[in-house]
UniProtKB/TrEMBL annotation:
GO terms for molecular function: homoserine dehydrogenase activity. It comes from Thermomonas hydrothermalis. This is homoserine dehydrogenase. One of its GO terms (biological process) is lysine biosynthetic process via diaminopimelate. InterPro entries: Bifunc_Aspkin/hSer_DH, HDH_cat, HDH_CS. The lineage of its organism: Bacteria, Pseudomonadati, Pseudomonadota, Gammaproteobacteria, Lysobacterales.
Length: 244
């Protein structure tokens, strides 16, 4: 079991090697914690397909830390201060630029799309990073001091959304045979993707069964407790002889 997304959510060759090892050696690979910090998203995709369903599209908020940041941010207090709080709470990756750059969300989207059987390359996901060049360039031990580089651009994006009556959300989208994108978007306040609170992830799945109205899953998507619980779930399932 692992919560690390680099196994299945980075190079396609590594994802293929893991699938091959699963099939040929009979090894188990517990990946429940890699997307949604254990929300039953991967499990649902697999259950739908095991029943003959085909997945057409996936869209949603896949970052618990970015969800939390965008729920907290009021355009008045500095965005960088909220990033420090999210890091202290254990919502961000050890280096918060992994979240702010969209790379963590890219990995999760790749894990989900690949779980539908589509061999998507990392380069096929367009990612719009929130990290300005000045912050990207600093060494890891200087990140926290350099986070203030985020403040002006985020304040401008927030003001633009506020004037239009919208909400900022960091959204991942993929459509079968079409593009895959990850980035900050302004959504109407009553948009389904604007809903939720705290670290909530919110994922919509369109399939043969859910063609007109998507299946929607929502719940906390970051934090030590939910992530550890997902790892334990996988361990117990393996011990009980279930095939993961
Ligand atoms: N935080 C979350 O909500 C979620 C995180 N994940 C994934 O979980 C993984 C860990 O993230 P997170 O728990 O937040 O990170 P943390 O930095 O809080 O924890 C990482 C832990 O791993 C230890 N560690 C790092 N390198 C080694 C090593 N080479 N040998 C032994 N121990 C090591 C660190 O020890 P030390 O402190 O001594 O350096 C630390 O205790 C990441 O892959 C992340 O993407 C997945 C889902 C949700
Ligand atoms: N840093 C990640 C933690 C879970 O994967 C996130 O913000 O979603």
């Amino acid at each position: 079991m692992e919560p690390n997304k680099r196994g299945q959510g980075a190079a396609l060759a590594r994802w293929r090697a893991i699938q091959s090892a699963r099939q040929t050696s009979g090894a188990h690979y517990g990946d429940s914690a890699t997307v949604g910090a254990g929300l039953p998203i991967l499990r649902t995709l697999r259950a739908l397909q095991a029943g003959g369903d085909r997945i057409h599209a996936i869209a949603g908020v896949l970052s618990g830390s970015l969800a939390w940041l965008l729920h907290q941010y009021d355009g008045l207090r500095p965005f960088s201060g909220f990033v420090r709080q999210a890091w202290q709470a254990g919502y961000t990756e050890p280096d918060p630029r992994e979240d702010l750059s969209g790379e963590d969300v890219r990995r999760k989207l790749l894990i989900l799309v690949r779980a539908t059987g589509v061999a998507l390359h990392a380069r096929q996901v367009q990612v719009a990073s929130l990290v300005p060049p000045a912050l990207a360039a600093v060494p890891v031990d200087g990140v926290h001091a350099a986070l203030t580089a985020l403040d002006a651009p985020l304040r401008a994006r927030y003001a633009e959304a506020w004037k239009a009556g919208g909400r900022l959300r960091y959204i991942a989208r993929w459509q079968a045979g079409g593009p895959a994108q990850v980035g900050l978007a302004m959504v109407p306040a009553d948009d389904p993707l604007a809903a939720g609170s705290g670290t909530d992830n919110r994922v919509a799945i369109w399939s043969d069964r859910y063609a007109r109205q998507p299946l929607v899953l929502q719940g906390p998507g970051a934090g030590a407790e939910v992530t550890a619980a997902a790892l334990l779930d996988d361990a117990l399932a393996i011990q009980a002889g279930q095939r993961l």
